[in-house]
Amino acid sequence: MRAAPSFTAETMALQRSFESHRPKGRRLFCDPDADAFLRPSLRALAIASGIPGLRRAAAGLYDAIGGPGPRPSAIVRTKMIDDAVSDAATGASQCVLLGAGYDTGAYRLAALAHREVFEVDHPATQRAKRAVVHRLGLESGRVTYVPVDFERDELADALVAAGFDPTARSTFVWEGVTNYLTGDAIDATLAVIHNLSSGGGVLILTYVDASALVDPSPFPEARRWVRSVARAGEPWTFGLDPQDASSYFAERGFRLIRDVSTLEAGRAWMMEQGRTELGSGLYRIAVMEPD
Fold first, then answer.
1. Radius of gyration over alpha carbons of the chain, in Å?
2. 3-state secondary structure of 94
3. Collapsing DSSP states into helix, strand and coil, what is residue 217?
4. What contacts 202, CB < 8 A, 6 or more positions away?
5. What pTM does this model have?
6. Phi, psi of 97 (to 5 degrees)
7. How far apart are alpha carbons 234 and 127 in whole angstroms?
8. Any idea what DSSP says for residue 240?
């Protein structure tokens, strides 16, 4: 079992923090507690990004190291998922966040304010998150933490034991996880989600374009991005061809409603704010319903 919390969870918190430090009206969302999940050096960088005159330099420093794709892609991904969760929450009494990382959506999204939320994540990452949540005083009786190793543990048993009701309409969010798993682990998790959705609901998940793992040349940002996560000890292991996505999910009991890259989704949002940064064509968000 991995002893250390996820490094990619911290980098996502940093990317959300960059966006949250932008002026009101010039940001896609605000995660006011993102800074709290960062080590001191990264927290200082994030805070610097909120200071006029330093904003471009701070974000530019991150992009120079991480490449041009991860940060804007993470920003658009968060915005898309926030909106999809808010839309799906109507009529849903509970929400399951699979691989919740350090996002505080369970606390910051108005659409979840009166919903039961089950946060599922690797035990090491979840322990680190809960310590910060406790320090910030965010704890709520409607948020239940469920430690699960997706490669080893029984997700269904863990959720039901934690109080999840399979007969209630539910929203499942599986963000930033599939690209780190095996195909078998993904199949097993999709089967569990389908079996736990007898009350109906929505599944929102992210995946990467499989071609980026084989030949990154169609995506200028891919080569550095793939190398970066591998160096961090969390290499991408799974991707999916978007042309096959509808049939892939249909074979597993889901009807695809929407499947869009962060590049496509973010273009209009960024243009509205006069921003030149764009998401990535290799990173995708899919929204689907169980058949």
1. 18
2. strand
3. coil
4. 84, 88, 92, 171, 172, 257, 287, 288, 289
5. 0.93
6. -105, 105
7. 19
8. B
